[in-house]
Batch of 4 targets.
Target 1
Amino acid sequence: MSDNEIISHTSKWIKNVVIDLNFCPFAAKALLKKSIHYSVLHKAELQNSLETLIHELQHLDREDTIETTFIIFPDSFSDIEEYFDLVEQANTILEMQGYEGIYQLAEFHPDYCFAKAEPEDPANYTNRSPYPMLHLLREESVEKAVTTYKDAHLIPERNIELARKKGLLYMQALRAACFQ
């Protein structure tokens, strides 16, 4: 599969799931401004994934027109435990490289499951993406968005409630449509 196809699937997911269901009320602006950067890493292993993370952090440092970055692993980290090991190491890199408070990391995976949730809980689809990926956000932008959005602290609860209301089949179909 080409990088363009993978990016297309991811951008459809951002538009059709994240934005259209308003899971992230701040995402539409970045999509409209075309300030989302996508990095596709094939045959990723922990080491080259962390090197790519550092490269993307430095890229964000240089390019202030980029609001957010998705590092996509289309053929790696399918095992959720292996993916969470990557996330843990990535957060350590953020801290060790002095990026804590500058960028934050969000987690998205096709098999994402909230703690204490059943795998078939539709709420898991708030974080289930087409591919395993790391999402880098500018902390300053997140803080600014949160302060201007009424009841921002309720967004996760609202998302879970909406996904459960829509139901498992709807959420599965919505994500599956991103591959078409």
Target 2
Amino acid sequence: MNHDPTYQTERLILRPTTLEDAALFLKLLNTPKWLQFIGDRNIKNLQDAEAYIHENILPVFKKNGFGNFTVIRKSDDVKIGCCGLYDRLGVEGIDIGFAFLPEYERQGYALESSAKIKAIAISDFGLTQISAITNPENLGSQKLLEKLELNFSEMITLPKSEERLMLYKWRDN
């Protein structure tokens, strides 16, 4: 198995997140939607972003062979967001997730990258079930998950949290 996979879509490059993506993560983790729907990760400077990647992203790829991908627009090599597969405590199965800088929302990039991540989850990693969680107020995320053929399953609460989240699931029939 390729432990440093890079994938492409028509408009995007998806490559494993590295420490070189710290500036993107500093910006992304402080966007209004990230703070509202995902939560404050207390990333206040470039060093915090590098530590976040080093502690939370790189070990997951090493352990699972998959994880968070930085999404880069082919037309200008701009890093626009992230998308990936996560083994999240409290979520049954592997979870698909995505986040984009506000200026790149509503252009189909989240759907394009997430559809590619779902496809490689099935083809490269043999997953027969994919889950996703979202805040009940995040209608855009809910619509995107439905386009990916994930269906609402139930409301859940993650460990060490009181927030109620919507759990979506896809199963290979």
Target 3
Amino acid sequence: MTIDNIKSAMPNYAKDIKLNISSLANDETLNEQQLWGTFLASALASRNEFIIAQISTEAAQHLSTEAMEAAKAAAAIMGMNNVYYRFVHMTSNKEYQTMQAKLRMNIIGNPGVDKMDFELWSLAVSAINACGMCIDAHESQLLQHGISKDQVQTAVRIAAVIHAASAILDGEVAMGQAPVAQAA
């Protein structure tokens, strides 16, 4: 199981991350598509090759081809949007808030899966990328359409844990301490 590979790659000091990965992989707050789409979008947003490879292999066992593509699309579009809207939100010149973004975002309107699943994945990626404006927008859409706060929290917990695991493994590699599973 690929989740086990990630857990095996975690150094001893990251025991809490390992335990959180296990509990989240078995969480029942989200349906299977929401859960594994969130894992995949979060892995892509976190940018660690080993984590991406392991999660994408696992996600492929739980997601349709359309859901796999939509989760990847959520990571892609939010990678762009989070930078742009974080700038709009953070700049002291509020004139940018009145300007059209002039960026193509067609996938948001037609993601190929349930719109709220795509919103959930977009929220997770936005949390990783620290875009408050996007977090607020996606969370509002989710709550308006019946997604519970527990489901929102679970998606963000997945994002937090996968991002932490990615950072840990990147750090280990940078220190010349490549985890056994990653070095293989």
Target 4
Amino acid sequence: MQQELLREGPSRLPEERLRPERSRSDCPVLLSERLVLRAPHIDDIDALAHLANNANVATMVSRMPHPYTANDAADFVRRAKVGEIGKCVYAITLGENGHFLGCCGIEPVDETSVELGYWLGQPFWNQGYMTEAAQVLIDMVFRTREWVTQIDARCRVTNIGSRRVIQKCGFQFQGTGMVESLAAGGRVPVEWYRLDRKTWMSLRTWGGAR
């Protein structure tokens, strides 16, 4: 089980909406039962490079190169500190010991929607971590961003684990398409899902999505 299309490139919002720094209130630290989601920092570089340098991970994330080096990790951490309005990138860590597990985030698509992206290191698949992280991030989006009416997510058609995460979070299938994958060296087929605010409100305790 794993991850999905966490973008590492520029937003599709107009250039004038970019800003050099985010305030901490835009992307607060998030807590769940087992996890802490916080901004990536330099202490994550070694673990990030180790977990991301895995073809089983990289081929499921659209803009992650393979091989993935410590320099790639350092560049990712650096760029995560410089965001634009509405965009957040999080390190997924264990609450009990701070161990780095992977990354997740949201990026604006247009004036009413954002896209959810994520990946998780292979040693941590099939333990419910990604669903837990995705749900707390989704809650934050709908509770703090009144302008967001829907959240989109995509997964490769071969990524059964990511599809399971998306469905557990209440997303509904919208269609299929193709995206560029750096690690795969070309375009790959993906499925597109959407969660609207009304559906989230009916599931916000996540009791109906487990």
